[in-house]
């Protein structure tokens, strides 16, 4: 199981939290006009809460003690109006702050999704989809629970607390100071519990991310798990991660559970102190009964905001842990940003050149070690060689999924790093061994790269790809809904639709990565026919392990350990009796057998 990262010193944790909070508050900038309205409502609600105990205490001394029933009724009516106004203000502040926070969180989710979509493939080489989903869903949901639902109440309690302290010190300085003696103890208690909770909540966010990654991986590979009798192993591995997440949450909850009784004890201690000393003052004439009554009510109100704020503070530790993970993702460098002076790729002819290209997925090991190739417009270039030799890497560099470590990749003599990625990729089509279809209609899947394509364009592409007849045989034809990854279509049917998708964008350069493998013989004939049409007049790069599919290639490049060891036509390489000829003879012998 992955570690949770280095241990951070408490002072560094506080600094990180402050920085995280400042960055989170930047999301409030679009709501500068709404925030003053919300704060006004918060202030109104807090004021109504603070004035009540004062009026009740005053009524004891000036109305009840003097038997002024009429005045008491008027005061009760006034209190009713005040509290009704307070209810209206509190309801308004919750709605207004909730409106702001939900839009803020929606923007945060949008930023995460945009970032994920724009990150280079090298990031996904070292990341798990389940963990990224956890940041987008679980971590943002944790922030929502901490801030979205309680921040309005928290703001109200802050203003209430300030108003109560001012009222207490104004009414009776001695009792006011006595009531506040426990505040330093509360601050110390909250600080200690928050520090413990922060460490545990970091673990909970990490473990839920690992659990989500494991869940996403196992659900996607359930067929393989059953086929290889690995279900019991997957269950055991999931149980370990699930137990780690459970234990982390239990520890965090245990800390929180111990925190609230501690605050309650301090609350009781302060109430007892006010009752004892206030009773003494009332007996000795140092304070009236009404003042003591007001103080007892204020003490109860005084500690309720502190309890809520303290509880929110511990709950916010989980939110901060989630925000840290979110901002780490948002800060991930997009290594393949367009250059500031990048231009649009003009309509290309299809000439592709690799000039002494070196590339490694990490700085320690090169995958390509000085590759040179030149494909003329309209040529078919076959890439053959063992798995891991660098064939797919060459394709990735043409599409600029990665940038070269050294050398240059040029199309029509233009370095691909000097043009925008969008203008480059819209002129390159790709058909993979395992193409992904998406939930949606057949027509939407064909038009994946050209969302505004007309129905006539879609059907023309399908006809060229030899899949129109099959689509029209479906229950709803082109509007037939497909499930996740194109279910329930067969591998060959999905491949034909993927070819139609490539046809529709009308690319000048076409990439085929094992496009005819893993399909039956009859469907392969349809695929080969569709590919033959698609290749006409286009530069193509074909990765093939079945060498019989590349005998008509303009150039065959034999790649081993990141270098081109042989190049030429099929006939030329057979005549050389080298690596390619040996591979072809082995496959021919295996086929004959």
Q: How does this model look, in words?
A:
This protein is of the alpha/beta class and 593 residues long. It has 2 domains: 21-330, ABC transporter transmembrane region fold (Up-down Bundle), CATH 1.20.1560.10; 352-427 and 507-592, Rossmann fold (3-Layer(aba) Sandwich), CATH 3.40.50.300. The protein contains 20 helices and 12 strands. It has a 6-stranded mixed beta sheet with strand order 6-9-10-3-11-12. The two termini are 46 Å apart. Keywords: ATP-binding, Membrane, Nucleotide-binding, Transmembrane, Transmembrane helix, Transport. The chain crosses the membrane at residues 37-60, 72-90, 154-171, 177-197, 274-299.
Give a topology summary.
Layout lengths: L9 H16 L8 H31 L4 H50 L2 H5 L3 H20 L2 H21 L1 H7 L3 H38 L1 H6 L3 H54 L4 H42 L21 E8 L8 E8 L4 E5 L6 H8 L7 E6 L2 E2 L5 H5 L2 E4 L8 E2 H5 L8 H10 L3 H5 L8 E2 L8 H15 L3 E5 L7 H15 L3 E5 L11 E6 L2 E6 L1 H7 L2 H14 L1
Parallel strand pairs: 3-10, 3-11, 6-9, 9-10
Antiparallel strand pairs: 1-2, 1-4, 4-5, 7-8, 11-12
Helix pairs in contact: 1-11, 2-3, 2-6, 2-11, 3-5, 3-6, 5-8, 5-11, 6-7, 6-11, 8-10, 8-11, 10-11, 15-17, 17-18, 19-20
């Amino acid at each position: 199981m992955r570690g949770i990262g280095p241990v951070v010193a408490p002072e560094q944790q506080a600094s990180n939290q402050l920085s995280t909070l400042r960055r989170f508050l930047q999301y409030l900038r679009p709501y500068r006009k709404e925030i003053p309205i919300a704060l006004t409502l918060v202030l109104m609600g807090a004021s109504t809460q603070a004035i009540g105990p004062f009026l009740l205490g005053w009524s004891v001394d000036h109305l009840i003690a003097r038997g002024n029933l009429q005045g008491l009724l008027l005061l009760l009516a006034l209190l009713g109006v005040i509290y009704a106004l307070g209810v209206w203000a509190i309801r308004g502040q919750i709605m207004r702050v909730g409106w702001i926070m939900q839009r803020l969180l929606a923007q945060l989710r949008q930023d995460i999704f945009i970032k994920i979509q724009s990150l280079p493939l090298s990031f996904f080489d070292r990341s798990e989809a389940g963990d990224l989903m956890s940041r987008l869903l679980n971590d943002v949901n944790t922030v929502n629970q901490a801030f979205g639902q309680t921040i309005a109440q928290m703001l109200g309690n802050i203003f209430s607390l300030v108003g109560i302290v001012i009222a207490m010190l104004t009414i009776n300085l001695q009792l006011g100071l006595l009531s506040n003696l426990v505040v330093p103890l509360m601050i110390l208690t909250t600080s200690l519990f928050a520090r413990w909770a922060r460490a545990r909540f970091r673990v909970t966010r990490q473990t839920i991310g690992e659990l989500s990654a494991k869940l996403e991986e196992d659900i996607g590979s359930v067929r393989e798990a059953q086929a290889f009798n690995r279900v019991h192993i997957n269950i055991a591995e999931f149980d370990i991660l699930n137990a780690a997440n459970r234990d982390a949450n239990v520890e965090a909850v245990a800390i929180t559970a111990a925190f609230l009784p501690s605050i309650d004890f301090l609350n009781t201690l302060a109430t007892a102190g006010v009752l004892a000393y206030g009773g003494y003052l009332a007996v000795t004439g140092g304070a009236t009964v009404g003042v003591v009554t007001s103080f007892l009510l204020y003490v109860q109100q005084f500690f309720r905001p502190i309890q809520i704020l303290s509880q929110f503070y511990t709950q916010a530790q989980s939110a901060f842990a989630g925000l840290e993970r979110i901002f780490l993702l948002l800060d991930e460098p997009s290594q393949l940003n367009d250059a500031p002076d990048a231009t649009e790729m003009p309509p290309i002819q299809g000439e592709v050149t690799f000039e002494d290209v070196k590339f490694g997925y990490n700085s320690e090991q090169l995958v390509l070690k000085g590759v040179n190739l030149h494909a003329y417009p309209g040529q078919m270039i076959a890439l053959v060689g063992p798995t891991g030799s660098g064939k797919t890497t060459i394709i990735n560099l043409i599409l600029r999924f990665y940038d070269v470590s050294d050398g240059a990749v040029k199309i029509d003599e233009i370095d691909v790093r000097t043009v925008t990625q969008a203008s480059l990729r819209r002129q390159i089509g790709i058909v993979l061994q395992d193409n992904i279809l998406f939930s949606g209609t057949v027509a939407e899947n064909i038009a994946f790269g050209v969302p505004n394509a007309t129905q006539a364009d879609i059907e023309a592409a399908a006809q060229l790809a030899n899949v129109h007849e099959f689509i029209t045989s479906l229950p709803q034809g082109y509007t037939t809904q497909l499930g996740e990854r194109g279910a329930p279509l067969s591998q060959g049917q999905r491949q034909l639709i993927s070819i139609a998708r490539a046809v529709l964008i009308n690319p000048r350069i076409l990439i085929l990565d094992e496009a005819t493998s893993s399909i039956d013989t009859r469907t392969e004939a349809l695929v080969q026919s569709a590919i033959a049409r698609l290749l006409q007049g286009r530069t193509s790069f074909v990765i093939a392990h079945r060498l019989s599919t590349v005998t008509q290639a303009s150039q065959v490049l034999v790649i081993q350990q990141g270098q081109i060891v042989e190049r030429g036509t099929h006939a030329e390489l057979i005549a050389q009796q080298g690596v390619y000829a040996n591979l072809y003879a082995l496959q021919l012998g295996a086929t004959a057998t």
